[in-house]
Hints:
Blueprint: H1 2-24, H2 31-46, H3 51-63, H4 66-73, E1 77-80, E2 86-90, E3 93-96, H5 98-132, H6 142-155, E4 162-165, E5 173-175, E6 181-184, H7 191-205, H8 208-221, H9 226-247, H10 253-272, E7 285-286, H11 291-301, H12 309-324, E8 334-337, H13 344-352, E9 356-359, E10 383-387, E11 392-394, E12 408-418, E13 424-434, E14 440-451
Parallel strand pairs: 2-8, 4-6
Antiparallel strand pairs: 1-9, 2-3, 5-6, 5-7, 10-11, 10-12, 12-13, 13-14
Amino acid sequence: xxxxxxxxxxxxxxxxASWILRRLLRDRISAKLYYLxxxxxxxxxxxxxxxxxxxxxxxxxxxxxxxxxxxxxxxxAKVSLRWTNYVVRADGKAYVNSFMQxxxxxxxxxxxxxxxxxxxxxxxxxxxxxxxxxxxxxxxxERHEAVLAELKSRYGIKxxxxxxxxxxxxxxxxxxxxxxxxxxxxxxxxxxxxxVLCHELVHIRRLDAVWKMIVQFxxxxxxxxxxxxxxxxxxxxxxxxxxDEAAILGRSEEERRLYSLLLIEEAQEKEKKKKxxxxxxxxxxxxxxxxxxVKERMDNLMRxxxxxxxxxxxxxxxxxxxxxxxVLAYRDGYNEILSENASQEQIENMLDDDVSLFAPDETEGExxxxxxxxxxxxxxxxxxxxxxxxxxxxxxxxxxxxxCDHSYVSGKDVRHDLKSDGSCEVTVYKAERCSKCGTVKIGxxxxxxxxxxxxx
Length: 456
């Protein structure tokens, strides 16, 4: 659940950064850059990046001087497990605390709603795709194949593409992923038809249909986030505008004006007769936009914005890196290992208690720095391990032990509980401690001692 929430934060932050950048540099940067940023925002919503946290911490460990690192390690924080993912493992089973149970229930509801939305969309798609398939039952005309082959060569497209003459004057569109189909609403061999086909082939070259499907998936997965719905609309907008830029690249002013007229004509056609809902797939690519977007696209056509690959790449990389720092918000879960004969009451008590964890920030909850003392004269820590030689080690109430080939030594686990009235209770368990990673396995209860006035 926390992974999903942090993904929402990452994606929303990237979306907000893109929106601010567009507002500040509206007339100076190519729409292609905004399209790249929109893609990056979508991926942040879908890809969990917890693995980056370890890399960043290793880099920080290298950059920060050794003396400063030692001082950081001495800083000990107190963390309540009441709002932490906590797992107790005993008898080969895993027991989770109430916080994890709530999260698991929330995830089930979240994913269930997302699945219902996606199933509804897929059922709608299958039904409508069968109706649209009637457009492509005929064989392509040879003259159309020649026009398409020349334009595919111009844009470096090697995939198989089908081209058919649509209803004259009607909006053109492209649909399909593996075998794209273009329905051209202009005479294919005319200048207008060439411009329309260039637009559609740019969509095919960039795999925009695939990206639109990914955006649909993102919208349904993050159905409760209003920023996602705004990003969905923004993605459609910058997709079309950036496609316009690529389609008219290197064109004359006359061709730009003709392209603008095509936008107006197809938008007017859509205003007269809206495309039937029954023919809308949700991720097909259309040449004609809604009327409200025509002016923005036309204004963009009249501007010759520069596209600097290096500058754009640097800017996108900087934003992606800065936003990726949200991975540091990922919290590690904590595990505690009990002996095989641990009682159910002991397990429930450990899960119900609001125990505290003392952990240096740099250890990310894996284990605590060990502190040794030569003589045992008093209880040094709220929880400590005492080996058979009398050495004392600070022990977390939970520890992560992944990847360690344990080497255990015998001793006892001593827990000191200071009461609000000044009294205290000391509980002692038989225990074993790994000399490598500090993991403690708890055994049988030895004693519980009550002190009316805490002497420690």
